[in-house]
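Side project, low priority. Logging it here so it doesn't get lost.
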Amino acid sequence: MLGGVADISYADFSETRGVTTTLGNTTSVTREIDLLATARVRAGLAFDSTLIYGTGGLAYANVKQSYTPAVVAGLTPVSSPDEDEFGYTVGGGAEFLATPNISVGAEYLYTNLGSDDSHAELVDASGVVRSTGRLDDDIDFHTVWAKISYRFR
């Protein structure tokens, strides 16, 4: 079996990390993903009513960033803007044809959206950056899906 799949999913991923600024203060940066989309190739082998497959392709998410700034008198907090992140996803799964129109299955995906350089800055009234904190790491995660499909014939 060889085919393709494109999906858009509501997601509720969030991660909060503490970042120490250049002034020694600590701020927390939160990254959230509410929407995840993939476009993948799916290839596998069918045995009677069971399909086992591997899948891989492109992934997209809009990463929203917010933070709780360190409070320093006379300085205004500024953070990274939201970003569109593109990466890849790979995994595999199995489906069982329960009736001619209904199948049930499970799928595992590893998704990597690349490196993210979130930052929080404190700027003075003239716009000069007085303190910076950076979080530079990969945005990656694992998902497991249970699914039921209906085939229109």
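Brief comment: Residues 2-150 form a domain with the Porin fold (CATH 2.40.160).
Revisit when time allows.
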